Each structure stands twice: as C-alpha cells, then as structure tokens.
C-alpha cells in the first residue's frame, strides 16, 4: 500500500441537515442542499469553487447529476459510486486520489435521504437478490440477526453485551443537542423491548429518520487557507467480499480487517494510536464485530471489550460519540456521519461530548450485508 497520499488532503468543512422528518414532498436533494449550505458556511469555501462532486443515495438514480443541477454547478469531476452505508468513506478515498491526480481541487461529498417523511412512498434503487427474495426474510435486520446469533454461538457473546452498545450510544446522544433520541436507556430497556429478529430487539436497531450530511475536502496546501482547522486524511482503505448474506463466507469475520489494514498502512499508524472511533452501528452487533476486525481487540472479544462502560462517555474507548445510528439518527445510510463526527472531534468542536486530547480518529462503515467495507483514519496537524 502506497503511503504517498498520506496527509495530501484534508477535510475543511462539514455540514448536516438534522431534521428528523422533513416537510411533505421534500426530496433527498433538498436535504443535501441544506447540508451543503451548512458545509460552505463552515469552511468559507464558495459554491463556485466546488469542482468535484461525490454523491450516492438509496432514492436517487443519478445523484451527482441531480445535486449539481439543483446547485447550478458544473464540476469537472463526479463520482456516484454506491457500495452501501460506507460509500462516503469510499468517496473520500476516491477524492484524495482525484485531487492528487489533478482531476479536481475542491471535492464535495454528499448524502441525503427522506426515508422517514416519504413513508410508504419510499423507494430504493437497490436490486433484490434472486437467491434470497423468495424466502421473504425481513431485509437487513434478519441478516444482522444471523451474524449476532453466530457470534453468540461461537464466542459466548451475550445479549447484555449487545444491549450495552445501545446504552453507550444513548449516553453519548444525551450530550449531543442534535441527536434525535436522548431519552434514558438501560440494558433492561433494550432486552425488554419488542423482538424484531431474534436476538435483536427494536432497541438493538437504528433509528429511522430523514437527514443529510456533507464533507468538503481539498488539498493540504489549500486547506491551510480555509476558515476551519484542517483535519488531514491520513489513510483510507476499501474492501468488497460479497453482495448477499447467503454468500458471506464467514458470518463473524468481515472485510473490515482488509480495509482497516490498508488504512493503517497508508496512515503509518496502529490501532493503539487512535483516540476516538466511529464504528457504524445500524445494529448493536456491528461495532462488536468491527472492534475485532479493525484490530482493537482479538476475535471473539468484542462484546467484553466494548462492555462495562468502556465505550461510554468517560470510558477508555470513546466510540460513536455523536450517538451513532442507534441514537443520533439514521437516514438510511450513516457513513457520512462517521466522517463528520471524526472531523468535529479532531477540531475540538463537540462541546460536552468532546474527547480530550483527540488527535487521531478512525471511522469505519460497511455496506449491504457486511458486503463492502471502508475505513478512514484522520489526524490533526500534530500527527501529520
């Protein structure tokens, strides 16, 4: 893995649209535009300076075209790669390569969704699996329930350990005014909730919200002239292993081990160097598996590693510090928020949830049914 791209680009602006339910007839592009305005104000970059646009979504067939038309911009480079919830970390990888190659100078990475306000009108362009559809199993929650069951069987992971992931996310959310669910939550609350797909209850599953997020990336040289302190992209890695859950070779071992290895190699860092971590949590089993595969603990130890308050505020392993998909919000794809929260933490902009002396952040997100994996490592100027 080449390390020549290490620190060559930086995040200079982030923006969000955190409206749980947008007004009727709103579109995903409306949501993205609100987040774009927020990111431009944050960075000081002008809309006319955006010459690279990266976007994906569940509802839009040609998201970059729709967004560029809405914003009335004509970038010289676009990318609408779609690999699921971790797409935007993959976009970050593509953006750093495009900037280094001179294909664009200021890249905008965007996502927006109206999955909640659309209600019964919500339509996804995701193709159904002809091998799984006849069995009518209930989508992602069933797939991740299979993973949870297997992890519990192989390693003795407990329902209480799964529940602790949800409780920790809620405790972080209580320090985040933009989080959608800040009501108190206990392990007993999680265990006593309605079962969705055994062993997962409704409190083991992410929220359903509208929302959008935007990240602005540029060269390290140009970043120094922007309004906010640069957050440098130190390493990014991608991996793809399968598409449908039936074709997942091992339910408890994921491609996160490959994407994380590539990211750490490019960053010239190890898991011990990471100060704050964002591990995609659409379901409580996910951070447990990722903690293992990314390299923070040994295989099978994820439940115990994240338990006992370790990943809660004040714990030794601050994780999903905005409240995650379980409590902050989940507009269909959450990966963009793992980047945004990493940048906010390294800039010191997180207020009551700020992790002290945070200089290295890691964001990891999958797509599909643990099908694709994208890992990014970020750093402040001190570690550049």
UniProtKB/TrEMBL annotation:
<protein>
    <submittedName>
        <fullName>Acetyl-CoA acetyltransferase</fullName>
    </submittedName>
</protein>
<dbReference type="InterPro" id="IPR055140">
    <property type="entry name" value="Thiolase_C_2"/>
</dbReference>
<feature type="domain" description="Thiolase C-terminal">
    <location>
        <begin position="237"/>
        <end position="380"/>
    </location>
</feature>
<dbReference type="InterPro" id="IPR002155">
    <property type="entry name" value="Thiolase"/>
</dbReference>
<dbReference type="InterPro" id="IPR016039">
    <property type="entry name" value="Thiolase-like"/>
</dbReference>
<dbReference type="Pfam" id="PF22691">
    <property type="entry name" value="Thiolase_C_1"/>
</dbReference>
